[in-house]
Structures are given as C-alpha cells and as structure tokens.
Write a structure and sequence with these properties.
By secondary structure, this protein is an alpha+beta fold. It has 14 helices and six strands. The radius of gyration is 32 Å and the shape is elongated.
Length: 417
Amino acid sequence: MRRRFLNACIDHPLIVLILTVAITVFLAVPIPEVDFSASSETLISHDDPDRVYFEKIKNIFGDDQISVICLIAEGGIYREKIFRKIEDMTRELKEVDGIRDVVSITNIRNIRGEKETIELDGETLEINRLYKGELVTEIPDTPREWEKLKERIRDNPLYTGNIVSPDGAATGINVFLEELTEKQLYEKDIVGKINEIIEKHSGPGVDISVTGIPQTKVLTSQYMKRDLKKFIPYTILLIACVLYISFKRGRRINAPLLLVAAAVAGGLAAQSAWDFVIPLEQAMPAVAALVLFLALFEGRAILLPLAAVVLAVTWTVGFMGYMEVKFSLVNTVLPSLLISIGIAYVIHVVSEYYHERPESEEPEDALKNAVYHISLPVAVTAFTTMIGFASLTVSDIPAIRDMGLLAVFGVFCAVLL
C-alpha cells in the first residue's frame, strides 16, 4: 500500500506539481496580512490572577498605553526658553492622531484650597475656596515670579519627583494614548511622530528622551522583523552550501562555493557592522540567484531540498494567516527552525537515493527504492517530533500554545514535501 502510493506520486509528477502549486497559492494568500505582536500579554495565561487583576485596574483607571518624555536642561528648566519649548512640545503632541492627552508642567492642574473672606449677615467669614486651574497660567518673566513657581512646586509632593526632578534639572511630559490595538499603533505611527517632535526640539543644552509601553512594543516588533529578514536568507544560503558540499560529485570545495560563502560572510558582516537590513523582497531574488549559480556548477541536487523546506515555511506562515496568529516573541524562530528540521528529512532521502542508484539501472527505480526504504524512518522521526511540539499546545501561555500548533503543522508540511 505504502509502496503503491509512493510510486504513484513518482510516476505522476505533473499531478503532484499542480497540487503543490495549488496548495501554495491557497496558503500564500493571507501571508501579507500576517502581523507581528510584541505584547507581553501573549506570555501570560488569560486566567492568571495577576493578569485578571491588571485588566480590572485598566478598566477602572484606563489603558496603560503611556509614553513618558524626559527633558533635561543644562542650568535647570526654570527658564523662559525651556518653558516655551515644553509648551510647544505639549501643543504639538496633542495634535498627533491617536494621542488622547498630554500632561506637562505647562498645563498640569494645580488643585488647591485658597483662603477667601466673604460677608455674611454682617459678619466677615474666612473660607477655603477650591482652585483647580493650571499650575502655570503665564510663563514667569521676573526672578521673583520664578521663585514663587519653584516654591509652589516644592511644596506640593505631587509635582516634585513626578513632573519635576527635586533639583529642577529635569521635567517629564506624560503622553496618554487612546485605546488602540497593536495594528492601529503601528499604522498611525504614533511612536515615530513622537520621535520626530523630540528630534525637532532637541538641541545644545537640552537632552530629550522617551520611554513607555508603546515604544517597547514598536521597537520589539522592529527587532523581530529585522531578525527574520536577516536570518532567513542567510539560513537558506548556508544550508545550500552544506548541501552542495554533501552531494556534489568530484571536487567539492571549488570557486563557485567559495564565492557564495564569501557573499554570505560579507553580507552578514556588513549588515552587523552598519546595522541595516535588506528587505525580503530584495534579498530573496539575490538568494535565488546564488542558489542557481551553485546549481549550474554540478549542484542541481540542492534545488529540490531547498524548494521543499522553503515551501514548508511558506505553507506554515500562510496557515498562521488563516488562523489569525501573529509572529510573537516566541514563534519568531519558527521559520529558521522549520528549515533546519525539514532539511534533515530531505538529506536522508537524497542520501538514500545516491545509495540506491548504483544498484539500479534506471534513476527512476533508484528513486522509488530510496523513497520506499527511507519513508517509514523519516515519517516515524517526524511523528515523534510532532508529538514533542504537540505537548506545547496544552500550555496555559498563549504564545507557547501557538508555537506548538504551528510547529506541528510545519513539521507535517516538511515531511509531506
């Protein structure tokens, strides 16, 4: 039964090719929609008591999407030039789409009680009237007014250490974002616009920096994308070099191999030294050209193994799209992992083919014998690997659970191809 099925696949390559192309096209459709998620929420169980409490607090006090800008000025912040700068930054930040509110020293509320006398039935009474205006109604223009402002800030613990440093050298600007999904955060480019405003107002004697959960999410997402764009092309090329050395007849270390190896080493060194990333849509054609270059020099045996693992990764990423699973801090390693696992299966098949070929008159017979003999061991190996990854699907942590599901599907695709 097994031999008959395998022989049928080998005897009808056109049907197999058409099915492979059809599945690839179907699974490739949602790939452009696969997004990245740098949220730590995927690393915490939905039923975790701390997470439940955190969600409760967010519902009461609002979302935690806050960016904090720190401005440090030489000579202190209590100068008209610095206050004008803070005032301008506050106004510009408020105009950014996706920012709900901005609180700085120039617009923060100053809620306090002020004594006031009133006349009631001929009697003079002293009362405390609630004042809730802004701390700075006008920027001071005399030394005496500056001292009054400093004293008012020092006397209120809500300001000192929160919005202004005790020594008066630094101040903070709190930026409150609207409740946005990660996709909306990236699409609106709020973090990028905040950085533009900071860069605009930075200068000699003024050091401005920013931190916060939005910045962490965006930077982590950028790092994940950069790592994928960097490692996938180099992984494919390095495996191509290993396959070339393993299956080439005759002299295995030659000029074409050395040229490709030099291109890989040079490209990786250049990207690491100058910290730039080549987009995948530009890198993959270059990878394909280098692989074909090796194939022209008695390296045709590397083409089908590489095609199989690349298709396995493509199918898995497409499956992610249909399942609406994002790349996270955990499953970012999945493409490189599948390439490494899948190439091992292909190496077993190709090695068995070369082992069987001298004993057979026809290459087709050698292929049938090789696939038949190696299919069961490879299938059992893949099955045990899938069981190992399937154990992750019972985890309470969403990211690990998704990783297990995707890895099982990816290994299945790799052994099928």
